[in-house]
Amino acid sequence: MGRRSRLNGEGTITLRKDGRWEAAAYVPTSAGTLKRKRQYGRTRTEAHAKLVRMLEQANRGIPVADKSWTVGAYLAYWIEHVVTPRRRPKTVLAYESAVRLYLVPLVGTKRLERLAPRDVLALLGRLRELCLCCARKLDARRPEEVQCCSRGRCCGRRLSARMVQLVHAVLRNALQNAVREELVARNVAKLVQVEGPTYARGQGLEPAAARGLLATVKGDRLYALYLLALTLGLRKGELLGLRWDAVDLEKGELSVTRSLQRIKGELVSAQPKTRYSCRTIPLPPFVLDALRERREQQSQEHDSCGEEWLNTGYVFTTAVGSPVDPRNLNRHWYATRKRTGLDGYRFHDLRHSFVSLLLDLGAAPHIVREIAGHSDLQVTLGVYAHASAEEKRKALTQLSELFQ
Q1: Smallest Cα–Cα separation from 205: which of 395, 357, 333?
Q2: Angle, to 10 degrees, between the axis of helix 207-217 and the axis of helix 223-232?
Q3: I need a labelling partner for 375 at 20 to 30 A (CA). Which of 60, 245, 256, 403 fits?
Q4: pTM
Q5: Do 269 and 238 form a contact (C-beta atoms < 8 A)?
Q6: Distance, CA of 13 to CA of 180 (rounded, Å)
Q7: CATH code, 126
Q8: Total domains in the fold of the chain
């Protein structure tokens, strides 16, 4: 019987001088060329198994990467060339922070094609075990040496479930893009499930409390801002980013097209949260009156400042015309809620109040969703809807009357 010859494309397996076995074969790469790729194993069987997997991948039409990436290098490429051109600045900042603080220190040195589900599980487990202050001290060179509060007392605060979920989501999205670019054969982060955070149901103001709030801020230069938050459900960034060219006092309409946010220490006028956030809202008469008063008030401030006035075009500005910083609005809200007896309420709860009160008045949910700018009706009904104690009492009374 003749000696069996090795066929073209079958690959070779040889013993190296360092004792490892090397399997090599020519396979197509993502650059469209043939390249000799090598796989290594401690035994001939292990090297042969890796060679078979590589050849099977090539037979399925999945090319191998023409460049050997580390996870950290690919994440940097992904942030610069994929995320930044397509996402909002605030989203880019959140992704960059997750990559820089957690992903690069813990898995950044691993080879992209060798990242396994167990590595993702170890990453998430590490994030859950470290307290907040120690998680920020991760060293990219020796992250395994960082022990939770090995020096001093533990701060007791852990990374939130939402942050752990975000880190996992960033890695999953990056690996999905690597699959599309045919750099890896599968998305290993998709194989690892992460329990999502439990959100507290938003608390809304009762009608009497909402009227009391408006009475408290009546005469304040930000009265119209609070009125828009309660009657139109605009988000904080949408209120501060509202410009006069988006308000038509003749037609009685308001267009939400921009959102003012603080990004890396600077105020930035960005696109709203989602494409559903861009919307046109009709203005009730009393809201129109408040906006006309605001315009007249701003005109008086302009006259007082003279040449020092900053003509930014925003509806809600400081006394010299500059945009209102979101942090300053928070300070104004803290003082206002204390005077009104609304301690514990967030400014965002005014938006909750708008949705809840409008639904309580019998407005159709899909109309409320369009006014609020929600992308999903379930968000309107599940997260923002808030039944008042009076409404619950009324419903149970009606049920009792039915049985009686």
Answers
A1: 357
A2: 160
A3: 245
A4: 0.67
A5: no
A6: 31
A7: 1.10.150.130
A8: 3
DSSP states of 4-24 as a string?
A: PPPPTTS-EEEE-TTS-EEEE
Q: How confident is residue 32, by pLDDT bands cut at 50, 70 and 90?
A: low
Verify that 122 and 174 share a domain, yes or no.
Answer: yes
Residue type at 87 in one-letter notation: R
The contacts of residue 183 (CB under 8 Å, 6+ apart) are 30, 65, 69, 74, 112, 113
Query: CB burial class (10 A; 0-12, 13-18, 19+) of residue 43?
Result: exposed
Give the pLDDT of residue 57: 73
Q: Is 354 helix (H, G, I), strand (E, B) or coil?
A: helix
Same domain, 185 and 89: yes
DSSP secondary structure string, 376-393? Answer: -HHHIIIII----HHHHH
Same domain, 46 and 185: no
Of 55-69, 174-188, 217-231, give the range with the top mean pLDDT: 217-231
Structural domain range at position 171:
71-191
125 in Cβ contact with 164 (< 8 Å): no
Residue 7's pLDDT is 46
Q: Does residue 160 share a domain with residue 268?
A: no
Q: Which of 290, 259, 254 is nearest to 371 (CA)?
A: 254
DSSP 95: H
